[in-house]
Amino acid sequence: MTRSFRIAAIAGDGIGKEVLPEGIKVLEAAARRFGLALEFTQFDWANCDYYLQTGAMMPPDWKEQLSGMDAIYFGAVGWPATVPDHISLWGSLLKFRREFDQYINLRPVRLFDGVPCPLANRKPGDIDFLVVRENTEGEYTNLGGIMFPGTEREMVIQESVFTRHGADRVLKYAFELANARPRRHLTVATKSNGIAISMPWWDGRADAVGTAYPDVAVDKQHIDILTARFVLQPDRFDVVVASNLFGDILSDLGPACTGTIGLAPSGNLNPERNFPSLFEPVHGSAPDIAGKGIANPIAMIWSGAMMLAFLADAPGADGARYRAAHDAILAAIEQSLRDGPRTADLGGKATTAQVGEAIATLVGA
Ligand code: GGG
């Protein structure tokens, strides 16, 4: 008897509300075809309207409400016209990541056939790598404060925090990923000349963790030249591991190099499965295009496929069905990008719903 999975569906703000239904549409098509048991529950909080009504992004018992879930399928957060971005982000997404110990943020970067590449002379296959972002500490802490605010003596401090536990576990995950890929290559993103305490320390942790992976070639690069190489030599990357902030920047730059951030998916993973993992597009709520029905839903749809691949390895899962469903969604995305309807970010005129419908039809066929 195969088990079922409970999925929390949280749209959030802006285009999150438009792309999430398309992701669910595709997952339901996959569920019908492959016999998956997915039960979706919609949660109408973790958005800025909820904040304006209640004074908080989420209800006090949000953790209890989500703890019984097997995964969270999340749209986007942020509506800066009404709520400052740091309040909406720290009140929702960053709480999920920290409280559910989703310490891996896995963000694939890939150039698809049919997608115009802004970089010269690049073809599909040239760009296909994974960014592994540390997701619970580093530069993303709320530790610090402002002294003498509003005066000439104003002073601000914000701390970065790196722990051996936190660095080692994300490095181990990245080494394992690289070791399982044909190229066995890991780039470690740091800034060990300028940030002269924590970054050489991070490089040292990579050396220590890497002793268990003698077949993985390690390339330590400063973040500044690394961003240049993302643009100039993207084919040299296989797996890239980075701290929270550097990983955030690299995983927006990577997809921009492959045509549009509208394709970029992510998984916020708790690999031990003690808590639900969260799957979301890399893009945010995009207030500039929200409400027009023109957002690209493919990042949301691909994030759903990543969720199925993660659930495939859950205890009691009929993994083969979930992996087959993942592969079918990826194949449908590939075909749709070759000859299907396109949203404006890819030079087309199709609506979000038309692209979602086209991919759902391909998945269900
Ligand atoms: N779906 C992704 C999203 O809502 N992103 C908003 C954002 O600003 N995220 C920052 C981060 O991922 O750390």
TrEMBL record:
Which residues does the UniProt record annotate as the domain Isopropylmalate dehydrogenase-like? 6-359
Identify the enzyme class. oxidoreductase
Highest taxon listed in the record's lineage: Bacteria
**Keyword annotations:** Manganese, Metal-binding, NAD, Oxidoreductase
Q: Tell me its cofactors.
A: Mn(2+); Mg(2+)
Q: Spell out the protein name for this chain.
A: D-malate dehydrogenase (decarboxylating)
Tell me one Pfam family matched here. Answer: Iso_dh
Q: Which family does it belong to?
A: Belongs to the isocitrate and isopropylmalate dehydrogenases family.
Keyword NAD applies: yes
Q: What is its EC number?
A: 1.1.1.83
Q: Does the keyword Metal-binding apply?
A: yes
Question: Mind telling me which SMART domains this protein's record contains?
Answer: Iso_dh (SM01329)
Reaction catalysed by this enzyme: (R)-malate + NAD(+) = pyruvate + CO2 + NADH
PANTHER family recorded for this chain? D-MALATE DEHYDROGENASE [DECARBOXYLATING]
Which GO molecular-function terms appear in the entry?
A: D-malate dehydrogenase (decarboxylating) (NAD+) activity; magnesium ion binding; NAD binding
